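Key idea: predict the complex, not the pieces.
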Amino acid sequence: MTIPEFVLDELADRLGARFSTASGVRAQHAGSESFHRAPPPDAVAWPETTAEVSFILSLCNAHDIPVIGWGVGTSLEGQALAVRGGITLNMSRMDRVIETRPEDMLAVVQPGVTREALNADLRATGLFFPVDPGANATLGGMAATRASGTTAVRYGTMRDNVLALEAVLADGRIIRTGTRAAKSSAGLDLTALLVGSEGTLAIITELTLRLHGQPEDVAAAICAFDSLEDAVECVTATIQSGVPMARIEFVDEDTARAFNSHAGTDLPARPHLLVEFHGSAESVREDAARFGDIAGDFGGRGFDWASTPEERARLWKMRHGAYPACLSLRPGATAVVTDICVPMSELAAAVTAARDDIAAEGLLGPILGHVGDGNFHATLLIDPDRPEELAAAKRVAGRMASRAIAVGGTISGEHGVGLGKRAYMAAQHGEACQAMAAVKQALDPRNILNPGKMLPDEL
Amino acid sequence: MTIPEFVLDELADRLGARFSTASGVRAQHAGSESFHRAPPPDAVAWPETTAEVSFILSLCNAHDIPVIGWGVGTSLEGQALAVRGGITLNMSRMDRVIETRPEDMLAVVQPGVTREALNADLRATGLFFPVDPGANATLGGMAATRASGTTAVRYGTMRDNVLALEAVLADGRIIRTGTRAAKSSAGLDLTALLVGSEGTLAIITELTLRLHGQPEDVAAAICAFDSLEDAVECVTATIQSGVPMARIEFVDEDTARAFNSHAGTDLPARPHLLVEFHGSAESVREDAARFGDIAGDFGGRGFDWASTPEERARLWKMRHGAYPACLSLRPGATAVVTDICVPMSELAAAVTAARDDIAAEGLLGPILGHVGDGNFHATLLIDPDRPEELAAAKRVAGRMASRAIAVGGTISGEHGVGLGKRAYMAAQHGEACQAMAAVKQALDPRNILNPGKMLPDEL
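Result:
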């Protein structure tokens, strides 16, 4: 699109050097960690205050200019790309931890604070913010995409850990949703409506987050299984038995190979589970023993316990490095990363079907996931110069999504919709898509907020 | 209002004896468990299927006839009253547990199933549905009002335990929200939007609920404190210490007296805490010991342990009977029941201020609550024939709400807005009320769904 000259001038007047149309700057905001690509935005703004966000939005709303939120650009379904041009709001200068209230187990932060920065800030309090999608994403971006990750099985997702928001609506109005109380029955749950709305309803300018006590004791381990089925069925049995897992992660044998070549580990080329227990010394011992018994029933072996903080950090650094590790299995490849989430009883069948489908398409596509929630990912490695590989990967992703819907699951457990899953929204939600569109239309009537994302254009 | 004759005929044709305009029937749907009163609805319908709900709504929408959902009428803020006339939908005939999937820890129910009926149905599975507002409410009503209660401190509220809904929009369209997966990042969270919407956005016709494992071991106890401050500060210290309480309930000395006269107990006329622990035998012992230590620091004594299921049932039956027990403190009285919820660090001050304010107004108003969440109630006993007492009680409730807002809390932790808290919505939510109204307008443009509730008419 072309932004009128006087609008560019007004923005430059207000923001000075924090507004740019330089091509290098724009190009930095056109990338994505997965295969999604789009032209760069027309301009980039770095607001420092809610008032500036409000100013930018009301101006853009008046002139039908798209506005796209940008945290650190780690979303996997193209959520932060400016597919219809417009202005990208880079929130990195709103990176202050405004207030920490240990006695109320909450923190108030600006949206550009990353989860690692918040946890560093919290270290002395005995509290932590548990949601951990792997990437050191911003908390604003994590809220916008309803992020979850390895610890969601114990502590919930962003849905469960955002207590309140300040946000700016499309026309520049500033609203506050939620409260600092642990619960509320007063009115529509706008907090939950904005969490996961992927920047299509409002720009988040402040978050009040629920904190959790650092566990007295932590134990983590990795163990191997003979087959994917054994490993996944062990997870289902563990969850059904009620052992309170803090993390229970599956990686397949391709991912184990990727760790070996990328992280210098020496794992057998077999499926593995990575687990963690949080609690008192006594309860951790008890939970670990119960898990060990269940794993034994499914042939789990070669338990390697990470007892010190350093060993645990190594284990989870390896896990969090799975994406680059998998990419390195095929030099020069890019990835169609896709995730689905299914009811526990359907997990083994869903993972097996995905594996077989990847093989049938002749693709290399490691599978791993937060299986304690029934959530797993396939990282489909493709040569960016071979469109037939992209097409094959998209077919696999589409069939994974269709199978998830067929068994009562969801087309995305955590990566969100963005560009990549728009085509499946109607299949999952049916008429409810129209209700979502009505809500979008009510709050953003000119469709300036992240247009072209999440909801299909035609319903 | 006057419903056109031909509309009445169409409804009678379709529903037969399950549609009534008899004055006795209408009067049965004009009551409320608290002081709220309204004229009866013009008619009552008992739908048996989603298709019938859809038929009724599309007909009423076409003719601007209000529709009000009714579970068993136990809401406390007048949510189920037909303040603008219209048709009350009594959901009691949609009372089937449609499916229980223990392996996925979920149950699918119709909205007229009560929580006790569901738990009776689940007994053999080893699972239970934890949300427990005291009254044997319907699950549809509990979802509509975002109910919580004694166990929310451990298991969350209806917000956390409704996975998916089927609901009928104002114009009769049937939508499905959410999935059977443990989490989802696919689209706007319409489930959370409908939970707590008090029948103003849609009529819920099916719920998919998250179940939890029955704890291996349970222990409960009651203990007395010298002062309200000691008891409440003990709660704050307990929650801040991270002891995973399954319930932690406060009752003041008036409530203790009410139990003695109404439930035949022999409690000292002092503030008490009622607590419960869930877990393994080992963890329950450990948690109970930790709580005992903390309670000791605040002068808690006279611990009475309820070790058998029968003793525990007696303890919680007494607690759940608090409302009639308190009413019996003043024969002939009705009650202005009000609840607020504040951050934990503000709890002691909020409870003390409420107590002092009740005394200053010369009212009898026992205080009790789910204090582990920072949530407490005042049951302000008034003579229904003395308007000055109603006015005094409303002043107290209004100041409780204002103080909650001032410290970052909410005007209702669990009773909801209905009629009673409408006047405080703007003070709590500010501009966000307009966003709520825009969502309401988008989904119910003719304002037929529970009109006159929750959102103020003028914003």
